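Protocol step 4 of 6: structure prediction from sequence.
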Amino acid sequence: MADKVIVAGVSVDTRHWIGGRRVASAETFTDTSPIDGSTLGEIARGGPAEAEAAVAAAKAAFPAWAATSPAERARVLHAVADGVEKRLEELAIVETTDNGALLRSHRRGVMPRVAHNFRFFADRLLRLEHEDFETRGHINHVSWDPAGPSVLITPWNAPLMLATWKVAPALAAGNTVVLKPAEWSPLTASLLADIAAEAGLPAGVLNVVQGYGSEIGDALTSHPDVRRISFTGSVPTARRIAGSAAARLTPLSLELGGKSPLLVFADADLDLAVDLAVEQYDNAGQVCLAATRILVEETVAEEFTRRFVEKASALVQGDPREEATDVGPTIHPRQLEKIDGFVRRAITAGARAVIGGHRRDGQYYAPTLLTDVAQDSEIVQEEVFGPVLTLQTFGTEEEAVRLADDTRFGLAATVATGDHERAERVTAQLVAGTVWVNCFFVRDLQAPFGGSRHSGVGREGGTWSFDFYCDVKNTVTAPNGWKNHG
């Protein structure tokens, strides 16, 4: 196979990055663009042998990287951020071509955030401290020890941003990394390996291996030398990973699916509430945090729906490389089939499509709003991961909270209300890792991030990331125990 492919004029290596060098595989898999279904290239398809080599490289590189001073680690991470910014346009166009998200979003928000991920955790590393405290005259000192080789498995909907959300704190903590990107969007992870090497990251500290699901994933997550596992993706895959981790008691962090609610109360600014609802079509609805269940107070439901339909109908769907496009394609034909299946079954069960409810040419699914849906129906309870929203009404605050919390998920929630006291009452009762009030998708890296119930295990972000990627140690020193050696 060819070692490199040209994507929108950018050369991307299709081989793994292991131990500071490119490594080919005997087998490959085909990577296609969701924009038009065209073949982008054949990608090295790793398995147990590549997993073993990557973990071995990470293990060999760990002692030296762990012993590297925080100041030097931070310097290298800032150099990686510099490299991302230098190649921002290349990263943006490659990722748009590979996963179909809007080019304008990659240019203005996503790729700058990738660089910020490295800068934030580099700076946080240098401020990482707990105050010493005293217990009966003994001094307690808390420190963060690098844990060891870490396996990071990332999704396809925001490939590089979500990968670096894990890679940056793991490297800052002094760990070495084996990154396994999603097989539907592997290309920018390969570019990240190049950028990290150019920034001076030592060989073996970051390894990137590509492959299909369990073919390589099982070997990585069950490896005895792996000390941390972080995964973002589906609940079924998480169960498999958790089983592998449990056998060796490997600590893991899981950020999983969501079926988040948007609660719209009658006292809300309806224009703001409609804007928040339409925003849920971002990235063609392929966002784990998306508030796909819209819950509207009965007295304003008709007016809300009218305004929503007017605004959503004006969205432009098409080529994500075009500046005017608002909604791009779904990632893969299999995902398109899944989305369409959800909608067809819902309509058969009695749901009504107020807008959308059908495919468009290629891998595009029309932004859809379904009403007349039962609370216990599949479309309300299961994650679709596409541009499909449901709308239900409620009569009281208590009913709104009950409906919002009535799923097995608990990743996020959004509340639109003009009453501050109501906001406090409602948010206190919502089961969610993140709650937004009169806003959406405001993310600060200082804040904890993760889900409740089936939406995840653990929290990352800020100091919480270091708590996960490190072995947190408390050293207790007795008073007056020193001998004077003169």
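Step 5 (inspection) to follow. The chain has a mean pLDDT of 96.
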